[in-house]
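Hey, quick one: can you model this chain's 3D structure?
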Amino acid sequence: MSIVHVTTKNELREQLKTKRIVLLNFWAEWCGPCKMFAGVLNQLNEEFSSKVKIIKVNVEKSPDIAAEYKVMGIPHSRLIIQKKIREPIMGYVPFEKLKKMIGV
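Sure thing. Here's the predicted structure for all 104 residues.
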């Protein structure tokens, strides 16, 4: 399964209808740390796509979604486990640390 990019609240709502753990990632094209973190997300997707669904939101294309999740800086991620939104993950996180945070 591939990483999903959404631009509207309706698309996001549909993508959140999953039994998998969701990692919701907010980013922008010009953001250096976001590009670094994208590599970690790609690795996570390759190894754990059956357990974790990665949804990316570009904050410049979807400021309404970013505002709803109170994104003040990027990269900014949220884990959604069993429909519960967890504390924000701020900035770049190395792969091994992210795996532990998710519990995979």
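One thing worth noting: DSSP finds four helices and five strands in the chain.
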